[in-house]
Specification:
Blueprint: H1 2-30, H2 36-62, H3 65-68, H4 75-87, H5 93-110
Length: 112
């Protein structure tokens, strides 16, 4: 169950990164940190990051850091995939080769 909570943390932290990108886009559009859209997205990103950090500390109470930390590398897969789908960002085939290698590394590391 610890690994499930660790995965939830990765998903939440990845979501926060997407929100940070949306906040950055809003800042470009509005030119102000205090514009409602920019401030709202920043608040959402920081809140999600804070909640996930609390969950992560809870995970670390029951697991060895060296065992669960490799799961954090999934963020290197989740965030780009989400930005491709949600924001239309493009990546090269070589990039996806790297993503596959990261996933293989996670499987090998967590299974060790």
């Amino acid at each position: 169950m610890t690994y499930v909570w660790a995965l939830i943390c990765v998903l939440g932290l990845s979501g926060a990164q997407i929100l940070f990108k949306l906040a950055a886009n809003a800042l470009n559009d509005t030119g102000s940190w205090f514009a409602p859209r920019t401030a709202g997205l920043m608040a959402a990103a920081l809140s999600l990051m804070g909640v996930m950090t609390i969950f992560w500390i809870w995970v670390l109470q029951t697991a060895e850091l060296g065992r669960v930390y490799p799961i954090m590398a999934l963020a290197f897969v989740i965030v780009p995939a989400a930005t491709h789908v949600l924001l239309g960002e493009c990546f090269t085939p070589r990039y996806f080769t790297g993503v596959v290698l990261i996933m293989v590394g996670i499987v090998v590391t967590v299974g060790a």
